[in-house]
């Protein structure tokens, strides 16, 4: 890399700077200009807060035994597969019941 | 469909070309859009991702946001090696080139003022961390089994006193460090401490500061930070940079109305 003036080698940059370093600069600092595409700055600020909360709280919440989202099919893929498994079991049961009826009918229909 | 214009920064015209293989947001190479004696650095981005609705939705997606933030920073970083860019906040998008020109036209004066103020300067980030307390640090030295309730309380008190002591030392250290570094910087900003979940750093962040330093004095600044690094047990100093002057790009005289 050639730099016009004497500048020490980058510290912690080029992928080494942590995500928080980058996000806090590109989202929270820099010149604020309303472009043609309007995204409220409030949204971005809320977003960083939300991100911090999301990242910070999932593990903590689990630690505290709060895991309701794990059983909500809209929020958890595991819950979705649990639900599928349940439905699957119910269908199997119904099929078994139908099959139990079937031999009799088969006997009756037999020539 | 020609796409929208994503603007990274405004600079003075610069002679050195950007790295040929540099890609920006969405993989599009950054292009220069001159207007009078200023240059906007822009990428063409698809409307499918950067129109109002999809952009709003994407911003909720940490992976997408991370990729865009890194691309944005990558372009700003490349600009910083050849000139002094005025970085814009992530997600500054216009319909077309003429929208970008109109924006520059409206803010020419303030852009020039800020660029003059920042010319030849870079930002260095300095963070101070307190390492986790002795009780959190693995593996704890096998404490002698308390013989009595009073023993137990005494042990607890000693441990918490050690932690309090470390905190006090860290606070003093951070205050002194900030004073020292401010002396060899032109300006400084103290940012909110970082959340370890997002930064992935160990220990608790007690100082998160940015310093505006002329390029020519950067070496000295870095040496100064380096010298403090192994002074205090349990306290860690981290240096990042050189960044574009993100933390100092805002107008000093605030309250400027847009349109």
From TrEMBL, chain A:
Q: Which Pfam families does the entry mention? A: Gas_vesicle (PF00741)
Query: PROSITE patterns given for it?
Result: GAS_VESICLE_A_1
What are the boundaries of the signal sequence? Answer: none
The protein's location, in the record's own words, is: Gas vesicle
**Keyword Ribonucleoprotein among UniProt keywords:** no
On whether tRNA processing is a keyword of this UniProt record, the answer is: no
Keyword terms of this UniProt record = Gas vesicle
Q: Which InterPro entries match?
A: Gas-vesicle_GvpA-like (IPR000638), GvpA (IPR050530), GvpA-like_CS (IPR018493)
- Out of the domains of life, which is the source? Bacteria
Coiled-coil regions, chain positions: none
Question: Which family does the entry's similarity section mention?
Answer: Belongs to the gas vesicle GvpA family.
Q: What is this protein called?
A: Gas vesicle structural protein
Q: What is the lineage of its organism?
A: Bacteria, Bacillati, Actinomycetota, Actinomycetes, Kitasatosporales
From TrEMBL, chain B:
Task: State the GO CC annotations.
Answer: gas vesicle
Alphabetical keyword list: Gas vesicle
Q: Does the keyword Metal-binding apply?
A: no
One Pfam annotation reads GvpL_GvpF
Superkingdom of the organism of origin: Bacteria
Chief subcellular location equals: other
- Subcellular location(s) of the protein: Gas vesicle
| Keyword Transferase in record | no
Q: Name one GO biological process term.
A: gas vesicle organization
The family annotation for this protein states:
Belongs to the gas vesicle GvpF/GvpL family.
What's the protein name?
Answer: Gas vesicle protein
What is the organism field in this record?
A: Streptomyces calvus
């Amino acid at each position: 890399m050639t730099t016009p003036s004497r500048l020490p080698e980058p510290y912690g940059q080029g992928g080494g700077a942590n995500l928080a370093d980058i996000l806090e600069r590109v989202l929270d600092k820099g010149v604020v200009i309303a472009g043609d595409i309007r995204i409220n700055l409030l949204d971005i600020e809320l977003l960083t807060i939300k991100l911090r909360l999301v990242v910070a709280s999932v593990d903590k919440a689990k630690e505290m035994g709060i895991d309701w989202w794990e059983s909500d099919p809209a929020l958890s893929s595991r819950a979705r597969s649990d639900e599928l498994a349940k439905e699957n079991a119910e269908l199997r049961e119904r099929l078994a019941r139908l099959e139990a009826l079937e031999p009799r009918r088969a006997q009756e229909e037999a020539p | 469909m020609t796409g929208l214009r994503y603007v990274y920064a405004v600079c003075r015209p610069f002679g050195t070309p950007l790295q040929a293989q540099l890609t920006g947001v969405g993989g599009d190479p950054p292009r220069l859009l001159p207007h009078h004696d200023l240059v906007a650095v822009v990428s063409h981005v698809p409307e499918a991702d950067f129109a109002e609705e999809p952009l709003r939705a994407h911003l909720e997606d940490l992976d997408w946001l991370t990729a865009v933030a890194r691309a944005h920073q990558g372009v700003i970083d490349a600009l910083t090696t050849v000139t002094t860019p005025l970085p814009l906040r992530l997600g500054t998008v216009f319909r077309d080139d003429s929208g970008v020109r109109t924006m520059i036209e409206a803010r020419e004066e303030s852009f020039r003022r800020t660029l003059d103020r920042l010319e030849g300067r870079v930002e260095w980030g300095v963070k101070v961390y307190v390492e986790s307390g002795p009780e959190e640090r693995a593996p704890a030295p096998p404490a002698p089994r308390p013989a009595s309730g009073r023993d137990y309380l005494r042990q607890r008190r000693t441990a918490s006193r050690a932690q309090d002591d470390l905190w006090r030392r860290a606070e003093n250290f951070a205050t002194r460090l900030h004073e020292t570094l401010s002396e060899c910087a032109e300006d400084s900003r103290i940012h909110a401490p970082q959340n370890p979940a997002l930064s992935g750093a160990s220990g608790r962040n007690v100082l998160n500061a940015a310093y505006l330093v002329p390029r020519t004095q950067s070496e000295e600044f870095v040496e100064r930070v380096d010298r403090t690094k192994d002074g205090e047990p349990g306290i860690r100093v981290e240096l990042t940079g050189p960044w574009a002057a993100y933390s100092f790009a805002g107008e000093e005289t605030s309250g400027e109305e847009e349109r």
